[in-house]
């Protein structure tokens, strides 16, 4: 009789277990996969500088950035709007991890090219990883002819290089933080006292207000600034607005340029004395190639 | 002692029988299609989980939103970030009933499935026709139904109102195999 009761109990438990919710079975059967965190930032820029975000493979983005003059120039200069700096660029996702770009800035008539490589990706789920890391490298070629007669710089003397490590974490869907150790090297400097190599560290963040709007902030601290000009650290605040294929950023910053070697080391305005520049970053994305087909193929392969 | 043996036999037998009652797929296919004057948008998902209990006719479907693949990668990002908010609502679910599942013949038949569809945290009762083929070791379900985007509190901003259809056609193809624990 005792045995009978035990077996009966086991059977009862067994039957109960088998009548569990069908969704529980689905949850159990769901493949345990690693989920990469997406959209740490909306755009490829936090404001002036780069974010860890890349454009996906085959996406070509046309980026137009503007910085107007200082708003405290007064009504005569229409609060800075009479002056304008522009950079336009083509930026392309060579793969999901590598992004290339070429651009041209009106400031110092500078051409620039950059590579951004996603090395580590923040993920959740199985084998999760706490943050994302990207490498960023760029070359800037200054073509403005502001030299004294007979003192023309060589091609090499016109070049500057930027290397950055971008480390970011999306703490919650609404809050992301990024730290950017930076090294900038310029082949030629104005005076002997100016360092060729400049170290800086940046911090950037975004706070999402609604699904399509976020507030961003970005600050770069320069460890050993240029001596020949009275420089300030670059500070920027802005709003990201996303509309379909566009990301639109409205920026207030003390920097008037849009490439790293320039805004990190050559900003001279003081944000808190009202030397603020209004600016915009506007981008339009175009998709080339078939993103989907390859992804589907990959998924099917991984399922088998 | 003999009773115990018989009961143990029953126990294993029930286990065996239950193995035949449930049919599962982990690689079901679902797609949705939005047609508008400006553009057509299509997304596919090949990782749909679905289970049918033939003893009751109950069906449960679970779809991971992030597994939908779009032609344009930026669209996929916006779909997850702005429209279905995959971080907050990672899955779409369907819990329904297939009537008279044991009375089906081995050839294709049409059944009306009713149940609750949950997308974006909103649950609505739906009714759809599906083609079903049930054999000893396979249950295949195929069909499509319209989903009214506004019913599920999915906002479409004014700038893209002409790019996205108000009603989206959802297609499914689920090939269930016997599920054994």
Task: State the low-pLDDT regions of chain B, or none.
Answer: none
CATH architecture identity of chain B: Beta Barrel
CATH class of chain B: Mainly Beta
Poorly predicted regions of chain A are: none
- The first-level CATH class of chain A is given as Mainly Beta
Question: What's the overall average pLDDT of chain A, rounded?
Answer: 87
Task: Describe it.
The complex is a heterodimer of chains A (304) and B (181). With 304 residues, chain A is mainly beta. Chain A has one domain: monomeric porin ompg (Porin, Beta Barrel), CATH 2.40.160. Chain A contains 4 helices and 14 strands. In chain A, the strands form 2 sheets. Chain A has a 12-stranded antiparallel beta barrel with strand order 2-3-4-5-7-8-9-10-11-12-13-14. In chain A, strands 1-6 form a two-stranded antiparallel sheet. In chain A, a hairpin with a 4-residue loop joins β10 (197-208) and β11 (213-222). Chain A is elongated. The relative contact order of chain A is 0.17. The model of chain A has no long low-confidence stretch (mean pLDDT 87). By secondary structure, chain B is an alpha+beta fold. Chain B has a single domain, classed as Lipocalin (Beta Barrel). Chain B has 2 helices and 9 strands; from the N terminus they run αββββαβββββ. Chain B has helices at 2-21, 73-83; strands at 22-35, 40-53, 58-64, 69-70, 91-97, 109-119, 122-135, 138-148, 167-178. In chain B, strands 1-2-3-5-6-7-8-9 form an 8-stranded antiparallel barrel. The chains are: A mainly beta (304), B alpha+beta (181). Chains A and B meet through α1, α2 and α4 of A and α1, β1, β2, β3 and β4 of B.
């Amino acid at each position: 009789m005792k045995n009978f009761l035990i077996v009966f109990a086991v059977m009862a438990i067994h039957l109960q277990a088998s009548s569990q919710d069908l969704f529980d079975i689905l949850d159990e059967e769901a493949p345990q996969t690693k989920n990469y965190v997406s959209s740490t930032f909306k755009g490829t820029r936090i404001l002036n500088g780069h974010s860890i975000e890349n454009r996906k493979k085959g996406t070509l983005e046309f980026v137009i950035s503007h910085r107007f003059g200082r708003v405290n120039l007064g009504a005569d200069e229409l609060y800075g709007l009479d002056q304008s700096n522009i950079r336009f660029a083509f930026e392309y996702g060579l793969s999901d991890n590598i992004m290339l770009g070429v651009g041209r800035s009106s400031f110092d008539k500078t051409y620039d090219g950059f590579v951004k490589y996603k090395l580590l990706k923040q993920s959740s789920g199985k084998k999760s990883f706490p943050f994302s890391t990207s490498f960023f490298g760029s070359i800037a070629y200054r073509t403005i002819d502001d030299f004294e007669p007979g003192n023309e710089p060589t091609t090499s003397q016109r070049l500057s290089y930027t290397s950055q490590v971008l480390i970011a974490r999306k703490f919650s869907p609404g809050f992301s933080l990024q730290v950017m150790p930076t090294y900038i090297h310029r082949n030629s400097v104005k005076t002997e006292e100016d360092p060729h190599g400049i170290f800086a560290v940046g911090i950037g963040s975004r706070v999402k207000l609604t699904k399509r709007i976020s507030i961003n902030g970005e600050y770069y601290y320069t460890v050993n600034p240029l001596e020949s000009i009275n420089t300030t650290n670059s500070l920027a605040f802005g709003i990201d607005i996303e509309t379909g294929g566009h990301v639109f950023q409205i920026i207030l910053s003390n920097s008037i340029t849009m490439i790293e070697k320039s805004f990190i080391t050559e900003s001279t305005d003081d944000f808190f004395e009202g030397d603020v520049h209004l600016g915009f970053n506007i981008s339009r994305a175009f998709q080339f190639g078939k993103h989907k087909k390859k992804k589907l193929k990959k998924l099917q392969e991984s399922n088998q | 002692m003999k009773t115990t043996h018989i009961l143990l036999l029953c126990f294993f037998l029930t286990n065996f029988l239950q193995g035949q009652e449930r049919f599962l797929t982990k690689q079901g296919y679902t797609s949705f299609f939005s047609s508008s004057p400006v553009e057509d948008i299509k997304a596919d998902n090949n990782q749909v989980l679905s289970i049918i209990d033939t003893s009751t006719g109950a069906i449960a479907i679970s779809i991971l939103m992030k597994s939908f693949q779009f032609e344009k990668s930026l669209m996929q990002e916006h779909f997850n970030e702005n429209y279905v908010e995959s971080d907050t609502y990672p899955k779409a679910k369907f819990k329904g009933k297939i009537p008279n599942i044991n009375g089906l013949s081995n050839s294709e038949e049409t059944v009306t499935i009713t149940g609750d569809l949950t997308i974006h945290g909103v649950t609505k009762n739906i009714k759809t026709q599906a083609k079903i083929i049930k054999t000893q070791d396979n249950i295949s379900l195929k069909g499509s139904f319209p989903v009214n985007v506004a019913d599920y509190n999915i906002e479409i901003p004014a700038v893209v109102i002409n790019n996205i259809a108000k009603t989206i056609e959802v297609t499914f193809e689920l090939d269930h195999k016997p599920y054994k624990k």
